[in-house]
Write a structure and sequence with these properties.
mainly alpha; 64% helix; elongated
């Protein structure tokens, strides 16, 4: 499962920009930005450009003999399983829900924050930006992991009971 599919990048961008759209409702659609301009630039660079570049640079291709021997590797791409309208809508729905949760939680926590003496226009944007970055990073980490089998806890329990020899080079006989 690759980390940087177009739907995931679009999901990250929508989560980031929908919080700003929700903020516009609070300020009467004046066009005031929730985030500082450097935050917008850094977000676009760090979360939409660099992951794609790093995946392209560090991705290891399979050998030609492996690709010819296992044609099933192509079936997901041939059937549009990685990026289709249904997948895209799923990621967009998730981002919309996350944006509402993040924005309204940060708006509620803003009054209780320790640094609310800050009278600048970007104080709420700072904590919202931090929360959005954490949500995106944790979601990308979670989604990139393979799913755990249902028997995972029992495997840990049975593996912990196995005796491991102290010196693997020493023959027990």
């Amino acid at each position: 499962m690759t980390l940087c599919t177009p739907a995931r990048i679009a999901d990250a961008r929508q989560l980031f920009y929908l919080t700003q759209a929700l903020y516009q409702r609070s300020v009467g659609y004046t066009g005031t930005s929730l985030y500082e301009s450097w935050s917008l630039s850094m977000f676009n660079t760090l979360f939409t450009s660099l992951p794609v570049i790093f995946m392209g640079v560090f991705e290891k291709d399979l050998s030609a003999s492996t690709l010819l021997a296992v044609p099933e590797l192509y079936t997901k791409g041939q059937r549009n399983g990685g990026f289709n309208f249904k997948v895209y809508l799923g990621w967009m729905f998730m981002a919309s829900g996350e944006a509402m949760v993040v924005y309204f939680c940060m708006l509620g926590l803003y009054g209780d924050a320790l640094f609310t003496e800050d009278n600048s226009i970007f104080a709420l944007g700072s904590i919202t930006y931090t929360a959005v970055v954490w949500v995106i990073a944790l979601k990308m980490q979670y989604v990139s992991l393979p799913p755990l089998p249902l028997s995972f806890p029992s495997q840990i329990y049975t593996d912990s009971k196995q005796q491991i020899p102290r010196n693997p080079l020493q023959n027990p006989h």
